[in-house]
Specification:
Layout (H helix, E strand, L loop, with lengths): L2 H9 L2 H17 L27 E9 L6 E3 L6 E3 L8 H10 L4 E4 L7 H19 L4 E8 L7 E5 L5 H12 L14 H12 L6 E4 L17 H10 L4 E7 L26 H4 L4 H6 L6 E4 L20 E7 L3 H10 L2 E5 L3 E10 L2 E4 L3 E4 L7 E9 L14 E8 L16 E6 L5 E3 L2 E8 L6 E8 L19 E4 L2 E5 L1
Keywords: Membrane, Transmembrane, Transmembrane helix
Protein name: Phosphoesterase
Organism: Streptomyces lannensis
Length: 497
């Protein structure tokens, strides 16, 4: 613990604790979704090929894209610009933490918008409030970072490792590289070359951050008609810093939009599919194209919470609808390690509370994010096991969602594409669909087993599931998001030598 945090702890009085607890209670009472049966992470994960249970790891739900009152606006008629709190998002950092805890999250991160000289606002105003929130809500590990104004791209998570110089580290990165931080504005910052420069700089830091793209095809105008974020930019960034630039949101935030007449995710040009970005939802699409190159590129799910839908916004509270589960200890470093290395699954509407995907062959095993290496033989079979745990009780809409189908998806790994703009993988397909008659219960889990026969080439496998009867997730309209739930695993890899 830093000296600064020790000092901050001493400033937290009983009056403050009562005050902020009251804020949470008031908000909880105001929201009809709160208290509908929190889905806690499982505590008995065991993997063949992974000593996760021995390391104290369990599935822990979190959210790396949440906004506070420090997502404001700037009066640029003065020099320096004047920051105005609460102009975009309205809740204090501690309120978000209280609500995250209420909805079953054990880690979260405020990712506030930048702007002219915002690096100084973060350092001098927001960071002290984060320290106070950590003291008030210690059950939720609260990361420091921001919604980075990525050069030439849409917004990205910039997650800072937990360490004594975390505030200085973010100030350094934001003031050097964030597109909108310069005042007067500097058009030279808003180039792809600047983004690559930022990633290379971050890669060489002793404490390595994480960068994850937000609502990546929100500006796309059609299926595969890309907007601000393009396949080549993802590839170039991942090439520059593969341990830093690791993925994009599979399920973007703003999922409550239809409850107030808007679009899920704010995707007004081309819609989400089942609440998921087309880059993820389309089998054989961009995500599969990146995986087919052997890239370790992961998906997450977030709230992007600004204003709750019951207050006229388009958002759910952190954890109320979308969750990113990581297999990790309740430890800042291990949670970042899980995000960096793909020990992740995502779900909406608390359709499930755990998901284990393992591949086994020739006495070896691997789980999500990992690689199993097998020898080429006349017959190399790979056993796939899918183990999921449905929600016990009701979700935060008062529903008891039921998994109606689970799909196993595989694709070949064929090496780097000759085109940076490639956005399909024609080898990717749904190889098996499973209904309730195809799984059996073990304790609180349901288990599915499937054999991939005669595996002769490098490949990956991933899983999705739904409470709907849609063979493929359909383009979203104005239906309630609670009626259209999906979960996705990240992939497990098979290397044949």
């Amino acid at each position: 613990m830093s000296e600064r945090e020790d000092q901050e702890r001493s400033r937290v009085s009983r009056r403050q604790l009562v005050k902020y607890a009251g804020v949470g209670a008031t908000l909880a009472a105001a929201s009809p979704m709160v208290g509908g049966g929190t889905a806690w992470a499982r505590e008995d994960n065991k993997h063949d090929g992974k000593s996760g249970d021995l390391r104290g790891r369990e599935w822990r739900a979190g959210d790396h894209h949440v906004h506070s009152e420090y997502s404001g606006e700037f009066d640029t008629s003065t020099n320096p610009p004047k920051f105005i709190k609460g102009a975009d998002a309205v809740y204090p950092i501690v309120t978000n933490a209280i609500m995250a805890k209420n909805f079953g999250l054990t880690w979260a991160m405020c990712t506030d918008h930048g702007g002219p000289n915002h690096s100084k606002v973060n350092l001098e105003q927001a960071y002290p409030d984060l320290l106070r929130s950590r003291r008030l809500v210690p059950e939720v590990l609260q990361f420091w970072g921001m919604e980075f104004d990525a050069p030439a791209l849409d917004h990205h998570t910039l997650m800072i490792p937990r360490h004594d110089d975390e505030a200085k580290m973010l100030y350094d990165l934001e003031s050097r590289f964030a597109t909108r931080d310069a005042f007067p504005s500097d058009p030279g910052r808003n180039t792809e070359a600047k983004m690559v420069e930022f990633l290379k700089y971050a890669k060489d830091l002793r404490q390595k951050p994480l960068v994850i793209a937000h609502h990546a095809s929100r500006s796309a105008t059609g299926l595969g008609v890309w907007g601000q974020d393009t396949p080549s930019e993802f590839r170039n960034g991942n090439n520059a810093a593969p341990d830093i630039y690791v993925g994009f949101e599979g399920a973007p935030g703003h999922q409550a939009g239809p409850l107030n007449g808007g679009a899920r995710g704010g995707y007004s040009n081309y819609p989400t599919h089942g609440g998921y970005d087309q880059m993820t939802a389309r089998v054989g699409g961009l995500w599969d194209s990146l995986l087919g190159e052997g890239r370790r590129w992961w998906i997450t799910a977030t709230s992007d919470s600004h204003v709750h839908w019951t207050r006229g916004g388009s958002d759910f509270w952190p954890g109320e609808y979308s969750k990113t589960y990581v297999l990790a200890r309740q430890d800042y470093a291990d949670i970042m390690d899980a995000l960096r290395n793909g020990r992740i699954f995502v779900t909406t509407g608390d359709l499930i509370t755990s998901l284990d995907l393992t591949a086994r062959s020739q006495g070896k095993g691997a789980a999500v994010g990992e690689t199993i290496t097998v020898s080429r033989r006349n017959r190399t079979d790979v056993e796939i096991e899918i183990r999921f745990r449905p929600l016990e009780g009701t979700n935060h809409n008062g529903d008891r969602p039921q998994v109606s189908r689970v799909d196993l998806i595989t694709g070949h790994i064929t090496g780097r594409s000759s085109s940076l703009d490639a956005d399909t993988n024609p080898t990717t397909k749904v190889v098996a669909r499973f209904g309730p008659k195809d799984w059996h219960k073990q304790g609180k889990d349901y288990v599915i087993k499937h054999t991939l026969r005669n595996v002769e080439t490098d490949m990956y496998a991933r899983v999705r599931g739904t409470n709907t009867d849609e063979a493929e997730p359909l383009a979203d309209g104005k239906e309630s998001p609670w009626e259209d739930l999906w979960f996705y695993s990240n992939p497990v890899f098979v290397h044949v030598r």
